[in-house]
Specification:
Structural class: alpha+beta
Largest sheet: 7 strands, antiparallel
Oligomer: single chain
Radius of gyration: 33 Å
Keywords: Coiled coil, Metal-binding, Zinc, Zinc-finger
Number of strands: 13
Protein name: B30.2/SPRY domain-containing protein
Order of helices and strands: HHHEEEEEEEEEEEEE
Mean pLDDT: 83
GO molecular function: zinc ion binding
Distance between the termini: 30 Å
Helix content: 25-40%
Strand content: 25-35%
InterPro entries: B30.2/SPRY (IPR001870), B30.2/SPRY_sf (IPR043136), Butyrophylin_SPRY (IPR003879), ConA-like_dom_sf (IPR013320), E3_ubiq-ligase_TRIM/RNF (IPR051051), PRY (IPR006574), SPRY_dom (IPR003877), TRIM8/14/16/25/29/45/65_CC (IPR058030)
Pfam families: PRY (PF13765), SPRY (PF00622), TRIM_CC (PF25600)
Low-confidence stretches: none
Length: 289
């Protein structure tokens, strides 16, 4: 469905470009002819002005006859603007595209409501500067080291935490964040826990997909490649995963849902929701019930 919509959108854009090129080409031709006619009329005007000062009456009559002769039917440019210029094909394609997009989003929102997931954070993965609360549904980055026991799945250097539950089907969840910077991500379980830099940072490798949220902007990261999302920031994010279809969608949630970014790929393992949380920031898993 998405590929079909993209193809239709490309066809509409190509049709508009072709129409635009044709109109621009015709307008340029008309402009060139108008400039030629203006130059010709100015030449006649100058010759008539010069002729008005001659005292040779015979020359005056002969020249005036040719200069004052009206232009022939093909000499002056005739511009016809049709009030019925038809963009019916463009309108029809745009209308079909709009209807199909609306159908897709309506269907997806219904799926979102039906596939709501109840997730919890896994204390065994939490970095020692991350404090979990409210039944492991809230994570806050603090300066105080938390007294977590040693565990092989704990993030050692990156202030990150994963959820307990892996997702390999359809799932929708929402998270509310506050503070300076947080990352709302999904990751394969095999993401590095002890490494430094890109190997463990969510969105910085090919094992994770991440939406970075700041008070002024969003950024999508995957495999250490950044995509800026130029829309106003909101404090609530919805995430919809269709594992089998290979789609991952991030939404800004307020009175309405606004699609921020969609990924189309092939997921080879179950995915785990995770958060990267900057000092003083926090994220809460929302109750969808």
């Amino acid at each position: 469905m998405i590929h079909s919509i993209e193809r239709r959108r490309s066809e509409v854009k190509e049709l508009i470009r072709d129409r635009e090129k044709a109109k621009v080409s015709r307008a340029e031709g008309l402009l060139e002819r108008l400039e030629q006619e203006i130059a010709e009329l100015r030449r006649r005007e100058a010759e008539l002005e010069q002729l008005s000062h001659t005292e040779d009456h015979i020359h005056f009559l002969q020249s005036c006859q040719s200069l004052c002769a009206p232009p022939g039917p093909g000499d002056l440019l005739s511009i016809t603007v049709s009030p019925n210029v038809s963009f019916e094909a463009v309108r029809k394609s745009l209308s079909e595209l709009k209807e199909r997009l609306e159908d897709v989003f309506k269907a997806e929102f219904k799926v979102c409501g039906r596939d709501g997931c109840q997730l919890t954070l896994d204390p065994n993965t939490a970095h020692r500067n991350l404090r979990l609360s409210e039944g492991n549904r809230v994570v806050t980055c603090v300066r105080e080291i938390q007294s977590y026991p040693d565990h092989r799945e704990r993030f050692k250097y990156c202030p990150q935490v994963l959820c307990r539950e892996g997702v390999s089907e359809r799932c929708y969840w929402e998270a509310e964040w506050s503070g300076r910077v947080v990352s709302i991500a999904v990751s394969y379980k095999e993401i590095s826990r002890k490494g430094l830099g890109n190997v463990c940072g969510m969105g910085c490798n090919n094992k994770s997909w991440s939406l970075f949220c700041t008070p002024s902007s969003y950024y999508f990261w995957h495999n250490n490649e950044r995509t800026e999302i130029p829309v106003p920031s909101s404090s609530r994010i919805g995430v919809y995963l269709d594992h089998r279809a290979g789609t991952l969608s991030f939404y800004s949630v307020s009175d309405t849902m606004t699609l921020l970014h969609r990924v189309q790929t092939t997921f080879t393992q179950p995915l785990y929701l995770g958060f990267w949380v900057w000092c003083g920031s926090s994220v809460k898993l929302c109750d969808l019930g």
